[in-house]
Each structure stands twice: as structure tokens, then as C-alpha cells.
Amino acid sequence: MSGTKILIIGAGGQVGTELTLQLRERHGNDSVIATDLKDKAEGIFEAGPYHKLDALDKQGLLDLVKKYGVTQIYHLAALLSATAEKNPMFGWELNMESLLNVLNIAKDNGVKQVYWPSSIAAFGPNTPRIDTPQYCVMDPNTVYGISKLAGELWCDYYFKKYHLDVRSLRYPGLISWKTEPGGGTTDYAVHIFYEAIKNKKYECFLSANTGLPMLYMPDAIKATLDLMDAPAEKVKIRTSYNLAGFTFTPAELAIEIQKHIPDFSISYQPDFRQAIADSWPASIDDTQARLDWGWKNDYNTAAMVEDMLLNIGNKLK
Q1: Looking at the 3D structure of the chain, how many domains does it have?
Q2: Full domain range(s) for residue 309
Q3: What are the φ/ψ torsions at residue 39 (nearest 5 degrees)?
Q4: Are residues 144 and 267 in the same domain?
């Protein structure tokens, strides 16, 4: 896409790190402006423009949009589920005000597309838990989920009222070996691999049979880029699309790891995150994404486990 200038807010996070790499490969380093809370660029961010930016700094955001002539914004900064429960008012402020700043600046300054991720946290205890449909009861009971549901409705509002091309996915739990997770309820599904390799045992903060929908990061990045590349007429949902890869419980994940590390053992000590997990879907129906713009995941649980153990093993050498 010629003339594309992409601004990523929260580029240092679990999704942002890998998305920045992919977008720079596609569009060139100079066309992708990475921002995060760190003072200066480190590692991958040194390859192209980097600016320190607080997601709540409206003027700082506006200055960058004008300076670079930004045409796309990926707004990834958020306080995640478990972290936000410890500081709910700040969770609401960061997650909601930053989104509204992005939407208003985008509509007033010629930004053509905005991407903002939602989450399965937008569902709640009265949502159907198995094969959760695209449209259903949504009654989140965490500040993160409340902010995501409200954000979905704001995205839809700005599309309908101001014709702003906003696109969104409801991410399930995301699993990645490149970046440590940032305080979510599904973080165990990353931590378990490090502990399996280093100590051959893991104490899980969720119970053995807590099934949650998950997605491997290469698939999450692919889905994000496929959605953003899709012709506007194919993007029929402007709140947020259900997205899924596979579902497993901690016990099932442990069994898959034991195929590679036979003496690995798992124990369970559920904490406050158990109540959060119990209010979320166990599996997701993402038929709409598959029909509308051709979403298809490449990884299943077995392939993900093999790839995670290989890459984390190399990383820890």
C-alpha cells in the first residue's frame, strides 16, 4: 500500500512486538512508527522510528499523527484482566480514554484505518460458554471486560456515525515465545513452558479442568493483518469479530507437554484469576470471521506445543 504510514501504540507488548516486525517487513522500517512507554528504542524497535508515548497523552498522539502523516493506527495499549482488577479505576481510564483519543484524532486527521483489539473478556457469566456465538448475552464482570465491551460499541459508533474504518478482533488467550505476557488470566499457558524446560514442574493458578480458548501468536498476527487487508465490504462486523484457534485445559496442556518432557509434573493452586476464567467462554464460534474474510488458523494444540518448546528451549540455552 503506497503512502501507508502506520502508528503502533503499545508496540512493546505481547502482540505489538511481533506485529511491528511483520508490518515493517511488509511496508519498510520507516513506514511503521513504534511507540511505547520506554524512553528509547531497544532491540527490534531500533530498526525504524520509535517514540516514547503514554497512551493517555492525547497531544503527543496528535503530534505524531501530524508529523508522519499517519494513515493507519494499531492501538494495542491496555491494562489486562488480572492487572486491571488490582487498579480498576486506572484500568478503565487507560483502556477507554486512550481509545476515544485514538478514534477522535483518527476521524479529524485523515487516518484511514484503526485497529483495536477486543477480547473474550467482553463476555460474561451468562454468556453461553461452549461455542460462544458472535451475537449473544455479554455481561462482563471485570473492569477489563467492561472496557472491552464499551470499546466495541464505541468502534461501531464511530464507523456508523463518522464512517471511520475501525476493525477489531476478540482475541482469546494468546500464546507466544517471543514476548512475556502482561498480566492476563491466560498467562499460565506461556509460563508453563518456561517452568517445564527449567524445572520440569509448574504450579498453575487455574484449576486442572478450566478450559479456555487460545490462539498461537503467529495465527493472531495473521488474523490481524488479514482483517486489516480485507476489502471494506467484506468487514461486516464493526464491533469485534469472534476469533478462535483451539481450546485446552491446564491438565490437557500438561499431557501434551509430557509427550516431549515425560517427567514434567503440574500442580494446581487456583487464585483470584480462577473466578475471572470461570466467567469466560470455554470455546468460541468464529464462523463469521471464516465466512466474511476467510480466517483460518494454521496451528493446533500439538503443533503449538512443539514450536513453543523448541523456541523457548533455544532461548534459554
Answers
A1: 2
A2: 174-214+245-315
A3: -65, -40
A4: no
Whole-number Å distance between alpha carbons of 215 and 248: 11
CA-to-CA distance for 253 and 63, rounded, in angstroms?
46
Whether residue 104 is found in the same domain as residue 252: no
The torsion angles phi and psi of 276, rounded to 5 degrees, stand at -65, -50
Q: Bridge partners of 247?
A: 213
- Residue listed under C-alpha cell 487455574: 206
Same structural domain, 169 and 208:
no
d(CA 172, CA 122): 11
> What is the length of the chain?
317
Taking only the tens place, the pLDDT of each residue in 180-193 is 777 888 999 999 99
At 208-224, the pLDDT tens digits run 999 999 999 999 999 99
Catalytic residue IDs: 144
Which residue has 486491571 as its cell numbers?
84
| 154 and 252 together in one domain | no
Report how far residue 284's alpha carbon sits from residue 307's, in angstroms, rounded to the nearest whole number. Answer: 23
As a whole number of angstroms, the distance between CA 119 and CA 121 comes to 5
What span, in angstroms and rounded, lies between the C-alpha atoms of 116 and 224?
10
In the chain, what's the furthest Cα-to-Cα distance? 58
Determine, yes or no, domain membership for 1.
no
Query: Same domain, yes or no, for 232 and 258?
Result: no
Look up residue 279 and give its amino acid.
Answer: S
Domain match, 26 and 84 both: yes
Q: CATH number, domain at 187?
A: 3.90.25.10
224 neighbors 174 (Cβ within 8 angstroms)? no
Whether pTM exceeds 0.90: yes
* β partners of residue 214: 173, 246
What tens digit of pLDDT does each residue of 138-176 get? Answer: 999 999 999 999 999 999 999 999 999 999 999 999 999
